[in-house]
Amino acid sequence: MTNIINVEKLADENRKPHKTKQVKIELGELTQHNIKQLKVLNRDIFPVLYNEKFYKDLLESGELCKLAYCNDIVVGTLCCRFDLSDNRRRLYIMTLGVLAKYRELGLGTLMLKHALKICEDDGNVDSIYLHVQIDNYTALSFYKKFGFEIVSKAMDYYRRLEPSDAYLLERKFKKPLSNEQISTISPSTITNVN
């Protein structure tokens, strides 16, 4: 998925006429060859450390993990997983972030729309959900624009951050799965969450 957007920049701090330039934004595959770039991105974007098993699992996740490019430079990441809990098949967004310098170019929107399309194409996803630190107002506002709602507050969700609490945000698609529907789901695409 590639988008070309026009970005307006001020010519200088004296607010002279705007200059417009085209920027190419797109999503790319995660591979063994660019996993180190993902590790650097995660370190720079998120205040959470991820272990080697996290990255190993991502290499096998296919469309559920994407790198976001701006003019062929890796600047963002989306990593999701399917899970099944309480008779519901849901897509969990583990990470979705863009380097600060490249925000507001539409990369976050492009990645979130990709995740929503996965749910739509699958047809058996009850909802999409994620955790957001309670004082991350920019992220909360972003997700609310896409129909996400705060469903609960997770106390002490982040062990090494202050504030440590997170909101659980969710966007529902349909009713929970019946036991009959659950029995037809391939076990290879499910991670149990308890």
TrEMBL record:
Leading EC class: transferase
Say where the protein is mainly found. Answer: cytoplasm
Q: Name one Pfam family in it.
A: Acetyltransf_1
- What is one cellular component GO term in this UniProt entry? NatA complex
Q: Name one GO biological process term.
A: mitotic sister chromatid cohesion
Known catalysed reaction(s)?
Answer: N-terminal L-methionyl-L-leucyl-[protein] + acetyl-CoA = N-terminal N(alpha)-acetyl-L-methionyl-L-leucyl-[protein] + CoA + H(+); N-terminal L-methionyl-L-threonyl-[protein] + acetyl-CoA = N-terminal N(alpha)-acetyl-L-methionyl-L-threonyl-[protein] + CoA + H(+); N-terminal L-methionyl-L-lysyl-[protein] + acetyl-CoA = N-terminal N(alpha)-acetyl-L-methionyl-L-lysyl-[protein] + CoA + H(+); N-terminal L-methionyl-L-tyrosyl-[protein] + acetyl-CoA = N-terminal N(alpha)-acetyl-L-methionyl-L-tyrosyl-[protein] + CoA + H(+)
Q: Does the keyword Transcription regulation apply?
A: no
The N-acetyltransferase domain extends over: 25-174
Which terms are listed as keywords in the entry?
Answer: Acyltransferase, Cytoplasm, Transferase
Q: Which SUPFAM superfamilies match?
A: Acyl-CoA N-acyltransferases (Nat)
Entry's Gene Ontology molecular function annotations: protein N-terminal-methionine acetyltransferase activity
What InterPro entries would the database entry show? Acyl_CoA_acyltransferase, GNAT_dom, N-term/lysine_N-AcTrnsfr
Compartments where located: Cytoplasm
Q: Any idea of its EC number?
A: 2.3.1.258
Q: What name does the UniProt record give this protein?
A: N-terminal methionine N(alpha)-acetyltransferase NatE
Source organism per UniProt:
Adineta ricciae
